[in-house]
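Here is one chain, start to finish.
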Amino acid sequence: EVQLVESGGGLVQPGGSRRLSCAASGFNFGNYEMTWVRQAQGKGPEGVSRISSDGGRTDYVDSIKGRFTISRDNAKGILYLQMNALKPEDTAVYYCATVQLGYWGQGTQVTVSS
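Its structure:
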């Protein structure tokens, strides 16, 4: 059974940092591209970053470039999203996903507010 379990969300002040983690199991994690998707309240999902199976290629949506970093540890089966210089507009539920297999985690809420 494929499982993706996100953690690391919470309340953070503007300008602060947070690191999200996604523990993957039930599939060969190292063989698949992984994606972070976020969904703000009342809005549709937005793919914000993706990373190739070997971690050698990363992509970011313009709104987070230079502030967020995606990475992965294939030996441990964990996907990360380091978020720096957070802004109120980054507030959302963040999901990790394997688009190729069609699985998402349950999400973790990130709220950026003073």
